[in-house]
Automatic annotation (TrEMBL):
It comes from the Eukaryota. Residues 148-217 are annotated as: Disordered. Residues 148-179 have a biased composition (Basic and acidic residues). Belongs to the complex I NDUFA12 subunit family. This is NADH dehydrogenase [ubiquinone] 1 alpha subcomplex subunit. GO terms for biological process: mitochondrial respiratory chain complex I assembly. GO terms for cellular component: mitochondrion. Signal peptide: none annotated. It holds the Pfam family NDUFA12.
Length: 217
């Protein structure tokens, strides 16, 4: 809220009257005022153009701040250093504040995106690893499934064969096998090991019984 008496006083102080040595140039949004003046004993810049006006900042008394604690806006800072010829207007200062707030918001969003980028890259790498691992796992699972199916099929076929063969046939086969084993064992016992060593022709000769010869007439 503006103060009419203060506004009227500042307008009076900004008038460039010939006898004055300092003039009010403007103020910032914090209420600090900015002045131009020239020292006593020097020629007035109004009469001598080569003499420069000196520029100064006067803090707002209501803020109760020391000169070192006052931070003027960038535009007023340029004006104080004579790098800006014209002082900034109130509208320009408000637009600069809005611009700075917008820059802060954009910087915060950029920081959030920058922080989220490593997480996004990690999630993307994990997704790629899972996709690369998925076909191998699926192939292994299919192989295990097929193997189980084959084993189950074999068991079913075996069970069906056992059901189709009668029990009597199985018993006969067992008995026949046992007989063959017994015969093989007996044949091994009757085998004469000395027979293989009788290689001479006379070893198997046996004497025959005597038969009298017939009488001659």
């Amino acid at each position: 809220m503006t103060n009419p008496p203060l506004t009227l006083l500042q307008k009076w102080q900004s008038l460039r009257l010939p006898w004055r040595r300092h003039f009010l140039i403007g103020k910032d949004l914090s209420g600090n005022t900015y002045w131009e003046f020239h020292d006593r004993g020097t020629t007035s810049p109004n009469t001598n153009p080569s003499t420069k006006w000196r520029r100064i900042l006067r803090p707002n008394p209501a803020l109760n701040l020391h000169h070192s604690e006052v931070k003027p806006p960038p535009a007023w800072h340029q004006w104080l250093r004579h790098t800006r010829p014209n002082p900034p207007t109130i509208e320009e200062q408000k637009a600069d504040v809005i611009r700075q707030e917008r820059l802060k918001i954009l910087a915060a969003e950029a920081d959030r995106r920058w922080e989220a980028k490593p997480r996004y890259i990690e999630d993307l790498n994990k997704k790629k690893e899972e996709e690369a691992r998925k076909p191998a796992l699926e192939g292994r699972g299919m192989w295990v499934e097929k193997r189980l199916e084959r084993e189950q099929q074999r068991q079913e076929e075996k069970q069906q064969e056992e059901k189709q063969v009668p029990k009597e046939v199985k018993t006969e086969e067992v008995w026949e096998g046992m007989k063959r084993q017994a015969a093989t064992a007996e044949g091994g016992k009757k085998h004469d090991p000395w027979k293989q060593k009788r290689a001479g022709p006379g070893e198997e000769w046996q004497p025959q019984g005597w038969t009298p010869a017939a009488k001659k007439p």
